[in-house]
Queue: 2 jobs
Job 1
Amino acid sequence: MIKLERRAAPSSMGLVLIPVIAVFLALITGAIFLYLNGLSSPKGITWGQVFAVYGGMLDGAFGSTYGVSETIVKAIPLMLCGLGVSMAFRMQLWNIGAEGQFYMGAFGASWLALTYPELPVYLMLPGMVLLGLLCGGLWALIPGIPRAYLGVNETITTLMLNYVAILWVNYFIFGPWKDPQGMNFPLSKPFEPSAVLPTLGSSRVHFGLVFALAIAVLLWFVLKQSRWGYEVTVIGESPRTARYAGMNIKKNIILVMFVSGAIAGLAGMAEVSAITQRMQQGLSPGYGYTAIIVAWLAKLNPFAIILVAILLGALQVGGYSVQTTGVPAAIVFMIQGALLFFVLGGEFFNRFRIVLKNQGKVEV
Amino acid sequence: MTQEFLITILATAITAGTPILFAALGELLTERSGILNLGVEGMMLVGAVSGFIFAVKTNDPWLGVLAALVGGGLMALIHAFLTVTLQANQVVTGLALTLFGTGLSGFLGKPYIGVPIENAFKPVNLGILSDIPFIGPVFFQHDQLVYLSYIVVPVLWFLIYRTRLGLNLRAVGENPASADSLGVSVYKVRYFYVTLGGMLAGLGGAYLSLAYAPTWLENMTAGRGWIAVALVIFATWNPLRAMLGSYIFGGIDAFGFRAQAMGIAIPSFFLKMLPYIFTILVLIMVTRKAMANRVGSPGALGVPYDREER
């Protein structure tokens, strides 16, 4: 008879093996859908063509200097948003509003760049960073404060605010901020050069990468070394213990939500300043949502988040590059969702071992 | 405000509220069994797209509804397997389901964007009922799916509060260990209601693509799945209150659409924010009240059940 036995400690092999297997299985799932979808099209499809799509994705993401730099460009907002949500997740705060916090950060930064275009660069860029952090952080406090004081479910409120933030930004780019020379497209005027973050050489890889790496190191340090980091971890693992130890849970919820939103806001600032260099519709193709997968896949470890963000950035760039061959870009979100399923399912095997009763133990 | 205008607003509130109602009923059953499924948005989208594709291909909207039930149900089965059998984190699994459903529906629906549907659900006159002044045009000049929802709501209420099955369902959601010791299979009950919940969410999605819109657009649910999750809390897990809540949301939606026609000079972007802001406000108020009255969610909501740990 097959029986499950709880492991005393997670298997260390599993910690590495499960994400790798999950990535593999998610890609297979994507392939099956590509194949089935191809079969129903009038042209039909062969498995060879399915693998050619993956080949094309890989080539698009890593096959050229341009591909690699684009992968990093996509990974930067994923790193920052992923670091942001990981902070909240660590405390069991399900902030899924990184998308809205990203937009509000971009909004704050754009406001400065468009309202005071004459500011010198040494005031402009720091000001934009500050406003990006502040707007993202404050936006996260709107659900954070009711969560702290009344226990209002933050999952729903953070998500609702994503829609509000996007509508808010759209109001400005369709209205007061609309570029008179923009051919009626929903765009703001382009920023002055003083409001554009520096890039690496002639590539589009920008200073946001430095923000992301610095914040990863900072978060790691805070979580491992500081008293506050310790409090956050304890509250996340056992609120009751935290309360007995006299930790101020309400204050920490508010603080963590603010920090979480601020980092996502910084991602929005970097994107609008370095990539689009103006506020425009559809600034994020769902970075805030993909960031949830990044954070979970990385087991909330700041350095792992950097690596996973690059992996999922590559998936996005690859997805865009095969779009020309008629594969919908939505396949990327599908593979990402499947990836999260397999990681979640795989965690089971970290917690349990399968035992055949009355026989020797079989490790899985 | 003329009576005619009031009728239009109320009738639109019902059609706009119906997709949210189906989804909220589904989530209500799911949560009653102790499982939180935040994948409603994803299941609705899969329901909307599969319903639309089948209705276009077969030219029969009822086959579309069937496909939506299957699509939503299959999505929910993923959730059930991960959270009931593998005891995965229910919040994150639900999020994964929404992300997966968004991608899957976009992927499957790509060739159908802008495709016209010839045989969508249309209002059906119910004879004498539809002729009652005021009541008739508000409640009884809709399509068959709205009438179906009028039946589903009381049936579910009866099921939950007045039958043995409903007692088992509530027991599993409140205290699975004691339900188990009384011989109720916690796993079976949870699988059943999670799947049924997904089917209802799929039906809600199909209502959008086959009756309300009727068309397929990427992400056409626009957060309605999340509003449905919030509504379940507002409804205190009671189908009748879920119905009331859905129509209130539908009314706000309808108001946003028609406010400009009424000459209210608010930019449409702000009117479109109303349902989301209202959801947040309702959630805050409901949570305060729940704290005062100590009525809460099903006792075991969100907690995986492990037989070995009884």
Job 2
Amino acid sequence: MWKKNVFFALLMIVGVFASGYFLLPANRVPDPTTHDVNWASQPEVKKVLDQLNSEFQKRWRDKKIEPTPRADNLTIIRRLSLGLIGSVPSLEEIRKIEKQPSEQQVAWWVSRLLEDKRSADYIAERLARAYVGVDNGPFVLFRRRRFVDWVSNQIHTGKPYHEIARKLLVDEGLWTDSAAVNFMTVTLDEEDNQGAVDPIRMAGRTSRAFLGMRIDCLQCHDDFLGTVYLGDEGKKRTGVQEDFHRLAAFFNDTRVNLAGIRDTKKIQHYQFKFLDDDAESIVPEGVPFRADLLPDDGTRRQKLATWITHKENRQFARAIVNRIWAIVTGRPLVEPIDDIPLHGPYPPGLETLADDLIANDYDLRRLIRLIALSEPLARDSQADFEITAAHERHWASFPLTRLRPEQMAAGIYQATSLKTIDARAHIIQKLTQFGMVNDFVKRYGDIGENEFETRSSTVTQRLILLNGKMVKERLRGQTSPARLQLLNRDDRKAIEIAYLCVFTRRPDGEEMNYFLKRFSENEGKRIDIIQDVFWELINGHEFAWNH
Amino acid sequence: MNENFANGCGSLEHFSRRSVLKMAGLSGLSWLTPLATTLAQQEEQKKDKKAPAKSLIILWLEGAPSQLETFDPHPGTEIAAGSKARKTNVKGIQLGRALEQTAEQMDSISIVRSLHSKEGDHERAIYNVKTGWNPDPTLKHPAVGSVICHNTQKADKGVVEIPRHISIVPTNSPARGGFLGDQYDAFKIGDPKNPVADVKANVDERRFKTRIDDLKNFVDRKFANRRIKKMAGSRTLGGHNLDAALRMMSSDQLKAFDISKVSKQRAAAFGDTAFGRGCLAAIQLIQTGVRCVEITLSGWDTHANNHELQNNLIKILDPAYASLIRELKEQGLLDSTLVVCGGEFGRTPYMNAVGGRDHWPHGFSIALAGGGIKGGRVIGETSPTPKRETKNRVAELKDPHPIEDIHATIFSAFGIDYTHEFDTPIGRPMAISKGTPIKGLLS
């Protein structure tokens, strides 16, 4: 009998531990394993950072613009969180960051974020929008989710960017097994190109995504407004229709069959009727500049991939530097993000970061660290003097950018949770977040692939924040900070937690007194007041903007 | 083979007056630009005087309806595959058999049966038909309702307190403002039998007032302090949207969304469906001053079991569409309300192995009524014996029209100069439409 009792007791103990393991949050906010406190002071890193910063400082001097002071660490940390995981830091993350030495907090946080799978997922989604857009694409033949996961895994495992790009351009196989081929299959059109990828869409997409160049107009006509300049250094020329279609010809052998994406063994002639021609002509493959970098061997796609990712093809490095800069800061160095002039001029920072990327095997993590520790990212968005559009344009002040829908949704969810919502969060919490964030973004309005363009806000968006389901339910939830404050009778602490959760900063004296007065005037309705404070902060401009 | 088809930049088709004038400016003839532009604008204003349409209702049939079972039947032919037709109240015009009530309103409706496009993929074609432009990764075009709202903004200021562009029961592709700005996106609502979401505060009036006072006078003021005041481009902090949202929340015009007061008999005529209720609400909304209402009926993508599935949807469409036209007529609103009914493309004039019809952008129909459109007319014809394998399918159409001609026709009905070019954010001038109005519909 006692054996039964012991067995039962053991069973109960195991049950309690299992419940605790699954229902209670795991040990939170681990230390990053790759954080090197001396990284930024290493001579070769310091040299790059000094060069990068001096270029911006020279620009400020030349334009006679006074830069804003350095922002405080938590403001910079909020920017990096929005840029790398699309959300604000949690209260427990803030607490952990503040335990680090002040001069190490930003670098420590970047290391933490880069090890967090959320950052790879988030950057992958941003890159995927450039590679395949946001549409669902051809039924069966295109698997967007699988594609984004693949990109995310490449980033998370530290794959050099030129290898990721090459894989996208040359891979073969089924869209389910070889996820990179979805870059091609998204252009399959059952009406016009039975079994073939669309070389025209591929040319436009490849040029924008990997060269940062919009040559789409050349599809239909030669450039006559002086907006597309091609050719080699010293031999600058305006773009012509042929440039676009010679690029398209690289994709003309690519077909889909039962084995997935494959190139035909025999060259398929690309034919096109140019604007002033009477008949179609055969267009050979060719590149719009640096033809000397194009190899003789390989399939047409392999040759193109080798040319694009060649170390001397600086446009490839410029394109990804500009895009990563935009992802981290909210605004690209060159706007529009995929319209970088081939022959310059270039803004401060772009060439230096491109050089460094090429010299360091296209290491995206290193690129992100450099941007995170650069002067422009650290500039405050407020000052005691008048901040003008020129300050923002030249990065003398951190530019205000409206949070994108996914940042708003994830930000609200995180700001109303004391614990971090990441891969370690409880499955139920993650599922709830997934559903709420998706619903919110759907109603708020996804921006689509041109997500770094300036957008205006809408009445719908405002109504969702004022009265929407997500804000309401998150503030009333059993584990919301607003409700948990019931356990804490310190009004000052409650206000501070609200500011830390939502604005990632502490309230100043004026703010503290303003809300303390509310508590003293409304005895007995503490939970309402706390919820009101959270609501007001979530609806505030300070939350809705990256600043 | 690849064709020189127009993408976003529109080949040379949209390089009309303004582009040429800009080029003239570049080539040193800049003195021509202001005068020529002014003269051209004066000419456009003269044309605008005849603009009967004030509101637009789009019955959006997402998934692509079969023209053979709806607006372009070919009874007794092989392509009909057994589908029958019915006579209408206009001699010589037939509709699909199931469009029983619509047939009685045919004298108010005209059909374009010879539309064609190059987009056979749903998402691309939806974009194409909603905007009149092919998808362009570098530039997002505005939907037709967004352009109308943009161009009537001044006239409506202070008059309409609810969104002027509304999408009822939308799918994932509601009409959007594109490069005109997100403020021209359609305001999305669900089945009108339910209250409009997010227009009621979650707390009592006193608390809500306190929240708004704090927000406007303390929290947002604090943020704006010491920060940039004059932001470049279209950026603003968004305070005006807060005011607009608050105005909407307290507006009497919100009643326009509410169909609960409508008599049961009247509501029943539209059908007991979200689509039918959407059509009913659309009448109230345009009476309130809303410029464009889009009501979606999805599910038309009948790759299998075409006849049964199409007929099921036509049973929803028919009473709603016919009642909408009838009521607009009875209330004297049809002359100023343009009703457009159609989807992103048509369906194949042959059946597949599982009794379905596949995608067919090479000859499909859209129906238009009211707003200056002459009723009881049919534009164009599709072949009763189309060849399965042919490179030039447009050649099989009689009086073919590219889809963008529908947009040019709509804009003309609203007195909007469809050749006018917007300055886009990427610095490229973009015509409102690259199509040509279909004269047979307007004259």
